[in-house]
Amino acid sequence: MAIPAAPPSYAEVMASKDQLFPNQQAYSRQQPYPTQHSYPIQQPYSGQQPMPQPTTMPVHPSWAFVQPNPSTGYSSGYGPSVFTSYSDPSSSRSIDTFAVDSWNNKKIRHMFIQKVYAILMAQLMVTFGIVAVFTFCEPVRQYVRNNRILYYASFGVFIITYLILVCCTGIRRRHPWNLILLALFTLGMSYMAGMLTTYHDTKSVMICIGITALVCLAVSIFSFQTKFDFTSCHGLMFGLMMVLFITGLIMVFTVPFGYLPWLQTFYAGLGAIVFTMFLAYDTQLLLGNKRYSLSPEEHVFGALCLYTDIIYIFMFLLQLFGSRD
């Protein structure tokens, strides 16, 4: 029976290892890295220095209305994605392109429309109250007709306040200056409309008020229901306005040659049609369901536009159907 060989000793194993790996011993004899090249050990956080905060998205102020991503099919270059407090509704900075997504919140939409129509109703009550006083009170009627300087003063107030409200966005959105200017504008235009009614009999004035109410109601219902987009008809609106302006200039230059009834009738009818279309245009801007929409911050500007359209419709209808005293 063969006797098994004894296991190798530790010295024999190490000698064989040095023969198989001759460079390992030399590597172990290398000096460590100098201390000046050693990396410093990071000290634990002591709490004296502030901890770095993670990057967060900016918080929008309370007045900002953030518009979601625009719908497909239309470019977003017509307006900003955030309604700032200093955007101009008469320019492309507050007229949003196809802002259906920005009106998804029906509560914001309904509150904006209710606020605009509440202001509009207050303006119309003041205006037609003044018209009723000028129409039914004979001493006031005669006094207004004999003092035309008040008409020119009211016209100046109307022009100044209108230009401020349309052009100065900061004042238009600053409470209470916007309401003060809107009240002065309403009083100026109400006096102008009331003085115009003093030159017509009472029956004609009441008929024109009724026609104006029916026209405004029909246009509002039509604008709510129709799929036709009046907000995209800028060229048509501009062309009709230029025709109305040129016709008015012709009437001014023909005054020295005498009164032309057919030209007066044409001008009054054209003016009633043009401002009826502008009423539909401004109503769809208010609703916000067409190509262009009005910023929900512009309740004063929306009420101003609707009120101006309604009063001009009444004035042109009074020139068209009213009987002069």
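Above is the first protein from milestone M3; the second protein from the same milestone is given next.
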Amino acid sequence: MDQVDKVIEQWRVARPDLDVTTMGPIGRLSRATKHMHTVAEQTFASHGLNMAGFDVLSALRRSGPPYSLSAGDLLASMMITSGTMTNRIDQLEKSGLVLRTADPDDARKAIVCLTTEGLERIEQAIVDHVVTQRELLTGLTAREIVQLDGLLRKLTKSLGV
């Protein structure tokens, strides 16, 4: 019996008229997510990054050579406000991990690209991030991971996220 089971049992006693079966998966997803974020942040911190910086660097890395995207493309891929994106880029630029230049086709737009140091940092960080993710799921078999992924895909699709 875990903490979520205890909460559910308390609600079953306090309000036997309610069907609280959905509290189990929601409570466990919430607890797991918080823990996974904490562990991921520790991995990122070991590379001098936080989750926000990692997200930007990994979007640039995934874009392929020359590892650059317009600020607008970065913004669209992360679903954050333009002010938040500007702040993230500013911090990464101060750290020497990205360089912002004017778009040669439209000087009003900025192009953000990985510096050599930024590319090296994300190459190291992604390896450790994948190891961390694998360690977080060691309690599941390979088959269970595939099943969980399918169920979570179905859930996120039904939620529109």
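Note on the second protein: The radius of gyration is 20 Å.
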